[in-house]
Amino acid sequence: MTDRARTFEDVRRTNLARLLRIVHLEGPQSRARLTAATGLNRSTIADLVAELVSLGVVAELPPAPATRAGRPSPVVAADPAIVAIAANPEVDAITLGAVRLDGTVVVRRRVEVDHLLRPEEAVGMVVDTMAQWRTDELREARPIGVGLAVPGLVRASDGAVRIAPHLGWRDVALRELAESATGLPVAVGNDASLGAIAEHLFGAGRGIDDLVYLNGGASGIGGGVIVGGTLLSGLSGYAGEFGQNRPGIPSTADRRADDGVLEDEVSRARLLAVARLTVADDPTLAAALTERDVPDAAAEIARQRRILATALANAVNVLNPRLIVLGGFLATIATLGEGATDQLLDAVRDQAMPAAAEEVEIRPAALGENRLLIGAAEAAFTTLLDDPVGALRAT
């Protein structure tokens, strides 16, 4: 291939990826809107869309009813058959889902467990669930990858879990293990980092390029930071471990763990205890905490909210975000009770530098219990979105 031909092919593949990403992030688009968004001419857009259709990643739909003169333009949408399989192993359950290229969750399953899952066991549950879904919900689907959201430190270079302390995993070659078992490309990431990406692209942080996301799960508290629209990963991919910071606790009466880290004090297990539950998903826990016969719930939520406010104020001082998004049980802490979110924000502003905190907002995660699945699927879609031709040739 000549240099000129290679350059032409590179430009074409770049434009294919560009169109696919627009449809992926912004939903169905008319050809006319794609032309305006990219600056390419109409015939080029028509050729590129035709190639994406032939690859099976987009579909052309009938044009919307005309509202002005001229021939209506066909609508380009992500092909609903393209899915990623996503999974989030935790200490009390594993949640699995299939996510379409447009970010919608086709099917979701939560399996509660009474023991710590071994890596091989978790991967086996992914394989078994995929096989079940392929005979029913995903009968017409085309899985193109697997995304795993793990509550631990995941090395970006090879998808190895260096340590997931609550699961008891250490130095697990998880991507290699899962690729061998599933026969699909696998992406592995920290659960909170993937949650940050999901909320930034599709949820509470959509359109906001500087945000802090904190995820509260059964394995503690993790975080993700978006700076200038990009995930802050750190040298090896370990950035965002807010739960391991030691919070300032002005009142000794608020302390429950001597020399404990944030996730020892702001804890889902402590909320389950006051709600008299052993295992529950987030909606069940939130509902239980609002029951009138749970007398200690309000006091425990208020205690955890005070400590969380200090941790968030520190994050505001360091990162100056436009938005703080709270997911999992942290969203419960932030929203239970009239005016709770405003009270938390006031407590953060009282402890942060005024200039850094003057524009910050706090919002609960908008994607609810699907946030980590959508984030894991986004990681699995990355190769396809970057180069649809190359990704599909490799599968």
TrEMBL record:
SUPFAM superfamilies listed in its UniProt record: Actin-like ATPase domain, Winged helix' DNA-binding domain
Gene3D superfamilies, sorted: 3.30.420.40, Winged helix-like DNA-binding domain superfamily/Winged helix DNA-binding domain (1.10.10.10)
A Pfam family that the UniProt record links to this protein: ROK
Similarity comment: Belongs to the ROK (NagC/XylR) family.
Top-level taxon of origin: Bacteria
Organism whose genome encodes this protein: Microbacterium limosum
Transmembrane segments annotated in the record for this chain: none
Name recorded for this polypeptide: ROK family protein
